[in-house]
Design brief:
Blueprint lengths: L1 H20 L1 H57 L2 H26 L2 H27 L2 H7 L3 H11 L3 H20 L12 H10 L2 H12 L5 H6 L2 H5 L5 H35 L7 E4 L14 H7 L50 E4 H7 L1 H20 L4 H15 L15 H5 L7 H24 L6
Antiparallel strand pairs: 1-2
Length: 466
């Protein structure tokens, strides 16, 4: 028994050393490192461009809301009515907030940006609460009835209560206020590249597609290369069964691929943190609290929301009821957590209040919670790659087949209960994929077991010329 265990351990070490010494794998690692570098550089460039663009948009909005305040103040003088006076007042507050925001953006004053956003959302929430109460008391309709029909339609659009917007801005205001009171460094842009936000952003955007292909390439010739190098003789002389050889290759491949990817991400995290700061590990992000214990997913329209988003030009629809000058597209996260929607004016959007079925957790704890499903994903990829490699004639064919498989499987990461949706662990943990982490892990484990059985049965019956 001890000799078999020793042989298995020796075989495992041999597999790790072989994978680590592969020139092909070093080339794949270089591709991964370049991808991470380009990801960080692109986002840093986008963040700077976005900040300047938002400052320019804020300049415009200062003028726009100043004009709206003057117009509705004039209407208030003509027709009276508290709703007209309140709208003129909120327009002035909006103009003031955007004026302060433009200065803070150009100075890249993160604390001031957060304070202004908190003030903006608080003002919006207070105005929303007042307008809802005013409408419920039927006072709004009474005022609108006294306004000439030729202008009343515009007033109805601007002054009608927005229930979704009120709930959204209330949640945003609370979130920003909590950040201010707790002293947590905020995430102010989708493209922000502080250390922790780099990890979160990468995990919920580029990671699934990139790592799926990278992992396949790393493990593509795990079986076929034995024939090319003539090391099948060494394997078959070991006092272990062929089924155990397959198992060792799968486990060693999963450990190696996980180590390569996670170490590369850790290095990128450290370098990004040293350059841009690490950010606060306590920054709260959304999570499905039942993701590890339940098979019932949080209802989500995430991918539908993404598909219908339109970007048809700046200021396409200056509708003050929805305030399109402020992007409030909050799909329960998408890498932007609760309360990190940036200022912008990009076409259509929707106001989505945070789901009551989701909760907040520190970003460091969220990232740690992704490790178990990630390890299961690497086990699945290793099982698939070993299966493909076992039935390939040589390493080159296996490499090509694994590369094709990795690329072709990318669309499946968005399909509920697809085995490879496990790589989408960031969005799964945030309750955005219509599936829980638990169900994803179970599907991936069952698929891995099936692939192992297929590979081991085929390998036992395969004639190998040494």
């Amino acid at each position: 028994m001890k000799s078999k265990i020793g042989s298995t351990a020796a075989l495992f070490r041999f597999e790790i050393k072989k994978l680590a010494a592969s020139r092909k794998n070093w080339a794949v690692i270089a591709i991964l490192c370049v991808t991470l570098f380009l990801f960080v550089a692109y986002n840093m460039q986008q963040e700077r461009a976005e900040r300047l663009e938002m400052a320019a948009e804020s300049d415009f909005l200062v003028t726009w809301y100043g004009y709206k305040a003057a117009v509705y103040e004039d209407f208030y003088g003509q027709f009276g009515g508290e709703s007209l006076r309140a709208y003129a007042e909120i327009s002035r507050k909006r103009a003031s907030c955007f004026e302060e925001l433009a200065v803070a953006l150009r100075n890249n004053d993160r604390g001031e940006i957060l304070r202004v956003r908190a003030a903006y959302c608080t003002a919006q929430a207070e105005y929303g609460a007042w307008s809802l109460k005013y409408a419920e008391e039927d006072k709004l309709q009474q005022e609108l009835a006294d306004i000439p029909y030729t202008v009343s339609s515009a007033f109805v659009m601007a002054l009608s209560p927005d229930y979704g917007g009120y709930r959204y801005y209330t949640a945003q205001a609370d979130f920003y206020q909590n950040l201010l009171e707790s002293g947590i460094e905020p995430v102010l842009s989708l493209y922000e590249m502080t250390g922790f936000h780099f990890l979160y952003r990468f995990m919920t955007t580029l990671f699934p597609a990139v790592v799926l292909v990278i992992a396949f390439l790393l493990l593509s010739d795990s079986m076929a290369a034995e024939k090319d190098s003539g090391t099948y003789k060494f394997l078959l002389l070991q006092p272990v069964s062929r089924a155990k050889i397959v198992a060792v290759k799968i486990v060693a491949g999963a450990v190696y691929a996980a180590a390569v990817v996670l170490v590369a991400m850790l290095c990128a995290f450290l370098i990004t943190g040293c350059i841009n700061g690490f950010g606060s590990p306590e920054y709260p992000v959304l999570i499905d609290p039942d993701g590890y214990t339940s098979l019932s997913a949080v209802p989500s329209t995430y991918y539908d929301d993404v598909s219908v988003m339109a970007y048809n030009g700046i200021y396409q629809d200056l509708n003050m009821k929805m305030d399109t000058a402020y992007t409030a597209f909050e799909m329960h996260g998408d890498g932007l957590h609760l309360g990190a929607s940036p200022y912008s004016s990009q076409g259509q959007f929707s106001l989505t209040e945070p789901s009551a079925e989701l909760s907040l957790t520190p970003i460091w704890l969220f990232l740690i919670s992704l490790l178990p499903p990630l390890l299961v994903f690497f086990l699945l990829v290793a099982s698939t790659a070993v299966c493909i490699s076992a039935f390939s004639y040589n390493g080159i064919l296996s490499l090509v087949l694994c590369a094709i498989a990795g690329i072709c499987l990318i669309p499946t990461i968005q399909i509920a209960y697809s085995p490879f949706q496990a790589v989408n662990c960031g969005l799964l943990a945030a309750g955005l994929c219509g599936q829980t982490l638990l169900s994803s892990v179970l599907v991936a484990l069952v698929t891995s077991a099936v692939l192992y059985l297929i590979t081991s049965m085929g390998f036992r019956k395969k004639d190998i010329i040494c």
